[in-house]
Amino acid sequence: LFAVLFFGVKISTRVQLALVFVSATVVTIFMIYVIFKSGSASATPFNPSKAGGVNNLFYGVLYAILLFVGFESAANLAEETNNPKRNIPRAVLWSVGLVAVYFVLVSYAQAVGFHLDVKAWRTSGAPVLVLALPKPAGGYGSQFVFDLMNVILILDVAAVGIGAATAASRLLFSLGRDRRVPGVFARVSPRFGTPTVAIVTIVLLAVVEIAWVRLSHGVFTLGGQPEYFVFFLWMAQYGSLSLAVMYAVVSIAGLFGLWSQSNRTALVVAVVVSLVVTGLAIFSAVYKVPSPFNSAFYYFLGWAAIGVVILLVLMGTGRFRRSAQGAGALDAHMTATEQVHPEF
Question: What's the pTM value of the predicted model, to 2 decimals?
Fold first, then answer.
């Protein structure tokens, strides 16, 4: 992971895209096969009333937000992208569109693959792997397909790890460059122009996290699950809650930041829809959440409080830009950065 990140974003993004292309192609072909072989194809999975209540529906939205996370991370790669004002918006919009089609197809295939049996789907553990089992075991595949899907799963995990680490390291670099965090995180490799300190920090945090889970035999009560799995689910709960809050905040900020630059009616509608969806997702992440996942909310509040304190300090010392003048200063800084690091 360090090597892929360190030698340039072109390498990391191409490796990630290659892994995703292979895995998504194989999964898509198999899911289409499942739809035709299931004999359960219907419009029922698209009926919101089948979710078992509004809370269940928007708890699903919470995880849908987590599934989509990453589409906006293209913005973090602007400094290492040719013509970013054209290519970054294209990357963001194409990502949203393609991923939406892919997720709808795969989710629908799983629903009909389990013959609309929600309990069987929910308790399967790894739905795609269960559907890939040989037909005598209740699946639609064979031993070869099952083994192939396991390999695909590993490739997907690797791709997600690369994508998350790329986004996190570049974001940490940006925060360091703007002195929102210590400036040491803005240091770059003289040869490759990549944010060395930020990359090392992200990799070390991953190592510490893995060692912590292993040495503590799972951190949380396992309930018969593998050591890593409960911690993974807890982090998913924490991450999806955090993302829902961030998307809500970004929507509110967009209302002010884009007021004079966009169609105001369309902007207000977009912000209202966004706040309704994220608000209900946040509610579902807090209301009647079972242990140990209910504790994620309190850790989120603590971390958010630290962020507010840092923000107030930055504003008090005049280091937080809130105006168009500040944006101009940032553009000037970016131009200077390109002159120092033309490889960006």
Answer: 0.70
